[in-house]
Here is the input.
Amino acid sequence: MKAVSNTTPLRYLIAIEQEHLLGQLFEKVFVPVAVHEELTDSRTPETVRRRVLSLPAWFEVRTLQETHTTTFPVALHRGEQEAIILAEALRADVLLIDEQIGRTIALSRNLPLSGTLGVLERADTMGFVSDFPQVLQRLKSSGFFVAEALEQQLLERHRTRRAAKR
Here is the structure.
């Protein structure tokens, strides 16, 4: 499977030291140049910037070979625009994006989506996460917003998966 990622999923997975999950879940994670620039910008936390510069072979920066101008119904950040266009161009199996407006537009273009929480939940389902509740707590502590109701749903599904494995 190949994925294209916007900035937020990579930034937060790196911040909580879980970016290796992407390499376990996907053959390749492509990012457009705009996303790479956001991840290495001086305003990005230093630990994230450093890690992005040394990510393994599953991580690949791609320049868009766009020959026509793609229009979007609303204004999006450059990284979101490029991630959507790259996902379409590569026929990615999934676009990793958290921002609601970008997700809505990607869905309207029939792109399969996941976000940071979806990546973590899928990795947990596949047995790649040893302590899902702790990882979820670390994600929240890093500044990632998770609504209380959603957090409870995720934890309940985790408990159900664990109980089913017994």
